[in-house]
Amino acid sequence: MSPDAFIDPLRIGPEEIATGRAGGPLDGVTLAVKDVIDVRGIPTGAGNPTFLAGAVPATKHAAAVQRLLDAGAHVIGKAHTDELAYSLAGTNAHYGTPRNPGAPGRIPGGSSSGSASAVAGGVAQIALGTDTAGSVRVPASYCGVWGLRPTHGRVPLDGVVPLAPTFDTCGLLASSGELLERAGLCLLGASAGDPPAALVLATDLLAAADPAVAAAVEEAAGQLAADLAVPLSRDRLAGDQLDEWLDAFRGRQFVEAWRAHGAWIEARRPALGPGVAARFATARDTPASAAEAAGPAGEAVRAALDRVLGPGGAIVLPAAATVAPPPDLDGAAKEALRSGTARLTTIAGLAGAPAASFPLAAADGRPVGLSLLARPGEDERLLAAASRLQARL
Q1: What SS3 state is found at 190?
Q2: Does 158 reside within a domain?
Q3: Which of 113, 115, 117, 135 is catalytic?
């Protein structure tokens, strides 16, 4: 794929398609909305032409969109997405691959591909995305923007196309740390909190990343602790359970993805891109019992967080295992990259915990996201850290 084969991030726009309330904390802030999230008057396409052809204009805004409109943001476009949000790459076999302004010629990451591309390119100041297995944090890392996956359940999913409801969240991408906090608090319906009281660098998760990425995150973690004036320690979070946790996550994701879309796929026989088609084929053949391991795995992750973290602490880890890869990798290489990053990103999903990606590092001249992972319900600490850090960037 040549650089001129990349597409603009928006499926619809950029022009104002929904007006926010004047005088709110986000008055005049421009917002792009991932095309699995409803905006009133526009059909939601979910990255697939057959899905779009069967869709009707949404009769109301998704709850997450309404919260940001009530705070004053203006929706200026619907952003491209990977098909049915079932990818971490940002490529789409039907519509193309949005540009990555942070790493030109590289993929933007997905499935909130257009959302991250729009923010990184200055098309929108903030964007809504969804994050099931990393679909906010990975494109935030690849494109060099700020991103938040909230605690599961803190942002209503009314008006959002599901993938795996146990893990689905509606999150946010932003052009600055200050704006991530301001918009994030509006999205959560929350008040500002304190940043993490301590940081723990997860050495086993660091070792799961590409060496250049690991080195960049390790260096950035020291600077982050200094900037926040908090202690930084080292510990292992997953031990020898990392692959077990990933398998448990995937088992339930397969079962729930087929439950969400299997009947539609069998009835409509839509064309799906190769990677998405392969995942749904596996999902079709996955027994319902495969979902059962996710419950104990989630309990194990939460117990590990309690063991490693003191009060108000946060884990530091890479937001993705590599920098943004080129678009022309073969299928095996793509799946290896996906699995490597998913080992890191699915931990938050199993725990139902908030996680953020901050653009604080680089490797090989390309952005690297430093991720903070907190206990469920401590989203405000991550947002406060983002805002504090903005002062030095």
Answers
A1: coil
A2: yes
A3: 135
Q: 43 Cβ partners below 8 Å, 6+ apart?
A: 52, 55, 56, 57, 58
Cβ proximity of 320 and 116 under 8 Å: no
CA proximity to 46, closest of 264, 252, 253, 256: 264
Residues of the chain predicted below pLDDT 70: 1-4, 391-393
Q: Alpha-carbon distance 44 to 158, whole Å?
A: 13
- Show the tokens assigned to 128: 């809504």
Q: Among residues 111, 141, 357, 371, which one is catalytic?
A: 111
Domain span including residue 261: 243-291
Cα–Cα distance, 245 to 342 (Å, whole number): 10
Residue 193 domain-assigned (yes or no): no
Contacts of 59 (CB under 8 A, 6+ apart): 40
Whether residues 264 and 335 share a domain: the answer is no
Task: Specify whether 135 is catalytic.
Answer: yes
Q: Is the same domain home to 142 and 35?
A: yes
Q: Is 60 a catalytic site residue?
A: no
**pTM here?**
0.97
Judge whether 78 and 12 are in contact, CB under 8 Å: yes
Beta strand spans in 106-216 (E): 126-130, 146-149, 170-174, 198-202
Pairing of strands 10-12, 74-79: antiparallel
Amino acid identity, residue 177?
G
Active site residue 34: yes
pLDDT of residue 3: 42
Residue 139 to residues 304, 305, 313, Cα–Cα distance (Å): 27, 25, 25
Within 12-73, residue ranges assigned H as helices are 49-53, 63-70
77 and 219 housed in the same domain: no
Q: How far apart are the first and last CA of the chain?
A: 33
Pair (141, 30) in one structural domain:
yes
| Residue 336, pLDDT score | 86
pLDDT of residue 334: 84
What is the pLDDT, as a whole number, of residue 68?
A: 98
DSSP string for 266-298: HHH-----HHHHHHHHHHHHS-GGGGTTHHHHH
Report yes or no: 324 and 142 within 8 Å, Cβ to Cβ. yes
Residue among 374, 340, 387 at smallest CA distance from 88: 340
> How high is the pLDDT of residue 2?
46
